[in-house]
Design brief:
heterodimer, A: 250 residues, 2 domains, 4-stranded antiparallel sheet, B: 236 residues, MetI-like fold, binds adenosine-5'-triphosphate, binds magnesium ion, membrane (chain A)
Amino acid sequence: MIKLTGIKKSFGKQEVLKGIDLTVEQGDVVAILGPSGSGKTTLLRCINYLERPNDGEVAIHQFKVDCKRASKQDIHTLRQKTAMVFQNYNLFKHKTALENVMEGLVIVQKLPKQKARELAVQALEKVGLGNKLNEYPSRLSGGQQQRVGIARALALNPEIILFDEPTSALDPELVGEVLAVIRKIAGEGITMIIVTHEMAFARDVASHVVFMDDGVVVEEGPPHQLFGTPKEERTRQFLKRSIQEWSYSI
Amino acid sequence: MKLDPGFIWTSFVALLSALPMTLFITVVSVGVGFVIGSIIALLRIYKIPVLQHIAAFYVTFIRGTPMLMHLFLIYFGLPALIDAISGAFGWTFTSASIPILVFVLISFSITAGAYLSEVIRSGILAVDKGQLEAAYAIGMKTPQALWRIVLPQAFAVSLPNLSNSLIGMLHGSSLAFTVTAVEIFAKANIVATTNWKYFEAFIAAALLYWGITVLIEKGVSILEKRINVYNRGGVA
Ligand SMILES: Nc1ncnc2c1ncn2[C@@H]1O[C@H](COP(=O)(O)OP(=O)(O)OP(=O)(O)O)[C@@H](O)[C@H]1O
Ligand SMILES: [Mg+2]
């Protein structure tokens, strides 16, 4: 179980997260929705301390990190328990697909090369890139790069994978392949939080949907409830707008 | 004026005996300078309190003064300092027992360190911040992330500038002749004065410097092609 309690984060005078509480159960697929600038990315980055929260606690099972007291070692441990898939992939440019996936296994988890290689190949095959093991990122399409990014996260066997708009940098025709991979691993019981603007995807794949606005969680619940019978006016407005945009884009 | 082409060749052969000294001075000062430069660059990028200001002062002072000046400051200043310290502690050690070459190497390393720190710094800053974040996200510690992810990419970006610095130090090493270290330039001077054929001797020296420079450029461009395999785009 992953539990966030009272997460606050400010940049200068601007308070971007105003005390976020969120509980993610084992095997949950949590989708976070919300308008641009509402703090979704910042929240994800607070979970693995790419941003250090100003206040609050991140707990993964028994392991609790209070931001007031977080040591380097705590942060390091937290990062070993989590993995992240970035909006713009952030693959290691000077490493092949296989090396990208092996890097954390060998350097962080200290697995023997042979074992790491096996796991990396497995992960890349799972995302449908068994035939691209030795390609550099510059020679892969955006969709393929993002699938390597997912394999890199998956291979580490983390407690949770954090996805930050994994498809929003992709050409529309490449979105499908990446969503299909995420859907597949979601089906395997891997705990994840996905920040996304893909409403249909969130509705179909998520087990729990969170709507954020202006640094707070406005409403959360199972997808049928949040999409079907949203309680809050702000949620209704947001969904109405998003679904309009969504239908325009078709 | 009469040119003796045959003597150019004779000088050239004579100069080859000084080539190892030139290469030694260049390689050591660039090597040590690279280590100094990396430390200075990291101090400044990570804005380490106090040290970053000392680092910035070092870089502006060294880049703002001629290399020959560094050599003279070290060559005349350091022995006096060493003797003063040695005297104060009552040691029998004196700076006279330190080979001149040591002062040359110290001075040129200090010079190279300042120039290389700028090359390294801009190389590191050219690497996308996302690379470091991805390294942290998979659980790497800062030294691992720098060493395995950021620095290799920074090195690839910086290769052309590193090559320029190396060539600059190669040419700069000729200044060592002023303190009687016998590298190519000093040797050319010796060959010239003993035979009264200045022009020929220095033409030979010029050809030798030029030759090494061309070799460095060729070597770097091969290295660059190899290292930059990963940048060759074009979706498969
Ligand atoms: N490093 C930073 N420094 C200063 N301000 C920041 C920083 N990162 C984010 N912000 C600000 O914090 C607010 C929330 O940003 P965040 O990226 O979390 O939003 P988001 O919900 O992910 O938006 P989007 O849907 O556009 O990705 C924004 O106003 C943004 O400008
Ligand atoms: Mg965002």
